[in-house]
Fold these 3 entries.
Entry 1:
Amino acid sequence: MTEAVLRPFVWMDYRLALLLTVVLPLVFWIWAMVKQFDAIQRFMGMYWKVASLLAITVYLMIAALPIGFLTATLARLLLLVTLWFWVDINDDIHDMQPWRPLRMGFNAWRWAMTFYCALSAAFSLVFVRCAFLTQASVLGDSLCRVWIDAPWGYKTIFHRGATPGLLGFLGIVALVVYGAYFAYFLLVKLGRKGRSASGY
């Protein structure tokens, strides 16, 4: 696969990620708050915790840190799981009147996210090899480098004065915090609460 062939698919992936993982979740979160529907509000609160790994990945990619290729795939897989993980939230949403626009829209988004995360994770697995290169090699490999262009565009808009090294360092710190919280969830909270979202 050449860079010219790959580039449109990578940019389509980033655009879909922006729409499905950021814009629409914000819409449903605000909608649920306005309608005072607690189950979707709780779901979205937990969703943003998981989805923050995507934001961390952007900062790792800005610095061309190879680990960003691993976190990109992992983030999509974790989102895929969390979409349907919480039994009590699924039950509460199922109990909503089926014709309610909030329920229909929210479930349509979850199914769209399911397909997107599965396909995007499979697509990104092809480039996991980039995670085992050096930083210089990532920048020198045209197929790995394509994935960095969009994060650099983000940096130009939101962090014009910051160096890639500083943003990459912040990404690493955030990844360590994320990893510690995720380990605590797996080792402590999951054993106590199971698949119930109550208390998270």
Entry 2:
Amino acid sequence: MRVKICGFTRPEDVLAALDAGVDAIGLNLARGPRRISLDQAVALAALVPPMVQVVALFVDADEDAIQAALAATRCTVVQLHGDEPPELAERLRRRVPVIKAFRIAGRADLDRVAAYPADAVLLDAAVPGVHGGSGRAWDHGLLAQTELRQPVILAGGLGPDNVAAAIAATRPWAVDTASGVESAPGLKDAARMRAFVVAAHQA
């Protein structure tokens, strides 16, 4: 089971996540309490060794801004968290893998996932005005009724106490958390990150 933790703002938290054994680090270049500047992203990405992915998160950014961020940082994956058109994802996929995030409120939201050109899909809770990191869960039973062709990254309200049950119920390709391992928005808790990784790997 692969583990991604998103929304880093401090070097010490990135180092603690690496020590815990994460597979991917997410850096928010979009909006919200975990948003960081491009200079911060450059500094944090530089801490990450080979074999660990660095994912740059965007919400409705234009292609030039995304490409500039990729050129400046060591980010190797793009995560699109807004209403980006499929054509943008197709162009980006020529350079880097693309994760497309979908906010799931009902079956209709899952029905539109399969048609989107992405290397993996991240399924999160639908919270108005929030693009990830809400701490809200969604009905995982919907996923059991849907056949998706892309690898699924499960997100939304996951923490050390419930990630194992969520994995057992949905059998995703990977899991993702932000608020579930924090002491405050954007401030990671090293013990919770370790517990999350252990629980996910043991599930």
Entry 3:
Amino acid sequence: MFLSGEKIASFMDGVKDVQIQSAGVDLTVKTIYEFDTPGELDFSNESRNIPKGNKLDFEEKIHLTSGSYRVVYGESIKMPENAIGLVLPRSSLMRMGATLISALWDPGYHGRGQGLLVVTNPHGIILHKNARIGQITLIKGVRTGKYEGTYQKENL
């Protein structure tokens, strides 16, 4: 069962009314990073290396050229322990030649999530500070869980 946007917003901080949709909540751009080193991932996570990236400073808007960027969202969330979260790009972002890639948001996760912004438009895109780029939706499950991974309370 999908939760309503109003219900999802009740688990979040920093949400304005315009962000609340019927089946989700729009996520905004807080911070954008360029990748500056390779990442590394193995089976056990012993060698896991997540690039910190180069923070792109912008006051009002920024022109992003074709490429991949790590985006930190402006809103934080305390995921309920009986739901998972999915983030999809807003259709306006796709119509501009860009998309968001996201992993599953686990039950019990608490933090300010991140996404992979991929710009394929050869002319790039222009994003304004706090632009709404994605939408999170929550799917309620029958089992409960508690996220205890590395990224608990990230970006808070």
